[in-house]
Amino acid sequence: MLLGIYNDLYQHFGSQHWWPAQTPFEVIVGAILTQQTSWNNVEKAIVNLKREKILDPKKLREIESEKLETLIKPSGYYRQKTKKLKNFMGFLFERHGGKLEELFGQSIEQIRMELLSVKGIGKETADSIILYAANKPTFVIDAYTVRAFNRIGVTKEKDYESLKKFFEDNLPKDVNLFNEYHALIVALGKNYCRTNPICGKCPLRERCDYALHSYDGAKRKK
Ligand code: SF4
Description:
Layout: H1 2-13, H2 24-33, H3 39-51, H4 57-62, H5 65-72, H6 78-96, H7 100-104, H8 108-116, H9 123-133, H10 143-152, H11 160-170, H12 175-191, H13 209-214
């Protein structure tokens, strides 16, 4: 069922080419900046950081907080996000000498535990970093995932860890699959499975309980 949904989404949307970043470090910064804002706003902040040539662990650690706040202002909540970035840099240098490859050389469980110990890094951010920066198979859950998969009716889980386990237990543990699947769910959530869903055009309408009960044109897909 989960692979069938994946195939329908992939056929409809195609490859999403996530994460839109040039380096693992840029993924981490983007994952922190994208909290509570749209990607367009994050891009503006990333452009500022690149222009100042500080998209680098050592430079981001050394830059004054006030200057960093100004540069990341387009991403919103810039004071909190400056603290979060500084917290991450503090962790990376104190625990791993500033070396991402040392952090990412550990098991998924260890990386996740360490990231979650950093103030300001929650589960979705930690899993995004592990999947898209460390390139290791952990499934990322977000609000789009909870909404769409509860509507489709394949699960009643709403809690982060339970839903993550549901995906990981029912899919091959393949980093490329997890990478593409989460990106496709975001495309689904943005384009169709919104607060007011557009079921009539959704590629999952024939699989979806919500659509079958509310949209006359849908027929159940086996
Ligand atoms: S058919 Fe409607 S409710 Fe179901 S996943 Fe698509 S948009 Fe969401």
